Structure formats: C-alpha cells, structure tokens
Amino acid sequence: NAGVTQTPKFQVLKTGQSMTLQCAQDMNHNSMYWYRQDPGMGLRLIYYSASEGTTDKGEVPNGYNVSRLNKREFSLRLESAAPSQTSVYFCASSTRQGTYNEQFFGPGTRLTVL
Amino acid sequence: QKEVEQNSGPLSVPEGAIASLNCTYSDRGSQSFFWYRQYSGKSPELIMSIYSNGDKEDGRFTAQLNKASQYVSLLIRDSQPSDSATYLCAVKGLSESNFGNEKLTFGTGTRLTIIP
Lengths: 114, 116
Description:
The structure holds 2 protein chains of 2 kinds. Chain A is about 0% helix and about 50% strand. Chain A has strands spanning about 5, 10-15, 20-25, 30-40, 40-50, 55, 65-70, 75-80, 85-95, 105, 110-114. The termini of chain A are far apart. By secondary structure, chain A is mainly beta. In chain A, a hairpin with a 3-residue loop joins strand 4 (about 30-40) and strand 5 (about 40-50). Chain B is an all-beta fold. Helices cover about 0% and strands about 50% of the residues of chain B. Chain B contains no helices and 11 strands. In chain B, strands 2, 4, 5, 9, 10 and 11 form a 6-stranded mixed beta sheet that branches. A 5-stranded antiparallel beta sheet of chain B has the order 1-3-8-7-6, with no helix packed on it. The radius of gyration of chain B is 14 Å and the shape is globular. The model of chain B has no long low-confidence stretch (mean pLDDT about 90). Classes of the chains: A mainly beta, B mainly beta.
C-alpha cells in the first residue's frame, strides 16, 4: 500500500515549456486535490476532483489544467510555464464520509521555472 | 482577513516541556479540524483530527476545540527533538468557496523547535 505517489520528484523548466505532474493513490479514495505551497503562503488549492469524471477550480487555478483519468489518477498540467509557478506541488486524496475529510498527501514535486 | 490564522513562530520549547500551538478560524460553520506536521522538505502528515468541542488525546498529542471561540489548539506533551517541525492547522468549513463541503483551508503553519 503506497498511499499517494507523485512523479516527478524534481523538475526544472524554462519559461513557456509545458509539463504534466502525475499523481496516483491506491487507497480507493473518491476525492483528489492539487495544492501548491510557497513560503509564507501556506497550502493553496489549485484544483479538486470530488469523484471520477468531475473537476473543480480551487483558489489559484490560473495557468493550470487537470485530468481525472480514473479513480486512482489525477494529473496537473502546466501548458506554458511561468516563473511564478515555481513552487512545491502536492497531491492529496480523501474519502468522503459525512463531515470527515482527512486528506493524505503525496511526497511532492519541486518545480523550478527559469 | 485570513480564514485560518496561526502564529508563524518560531516557537522554541525545551525538551520534555509542553508545546502549545494555536489556531483561530473565521468560518463559524466549520465542522472538521485537523493538525498536520510537516518536516522540512517533506509533505504534510496528518497527526490529529477533531470534530466536536472538547479535548481529544492520542499519545503525547492533545487537540482542543472550542467552536464558540473559533479556536483549536494542539498540545504536545514531553516534547522531543523529533517534534521539531512546522505544524499546519486545517479547517473544513461551509463558506461559499467550498466545493461540496470537501475543501480544507490551511493556515500558514507554526514552526516549532524543541531545544535539547
């Protein structure tokens, strides 16, 4: 049981390049999330998927797209990377049980855009 | 106004003492409250969740919730150097920005240092 996995762990891009961050979970969770974490800003939600086939924008969606490929996988795409997207990206998942929403995080992707 | 506020610290506590971490939130309809621990360069790790007023204990950790005061805290007893980390408070609220009430709002975290 690996929990939440993310690839790659590190990435350096040039401005304007594109890339896709991959996330997978093996906990049979319905909901999946993408966050970015910047110094002094805390964790900010980029996109969210409540279930397979649905996605919704979070607090900072501009410049990103997502795909919920199946129940296990949720990818984040940067179409044209900008230096402002330099950050640490975390994927998380949770099971929906009434008021509970314990989210479990992957190890993160450290992205630098030059 | 931030929705979830934490003192950024750093908070320094001697080894063996009690560390007290505090968090306030603005959404009065908030239902679920979580504490995450994040070591430098690592991902957040869930350590406590609390849903009703009062105290919840798990080993050396105690979470305290006071919905009337919109306040949640985390106490760490017998603090160890391995407790040195940033602690994130997260709240599941009922604000308009939520999506099906699944969204968590995170504070910016309190950096805790345990001094041997």
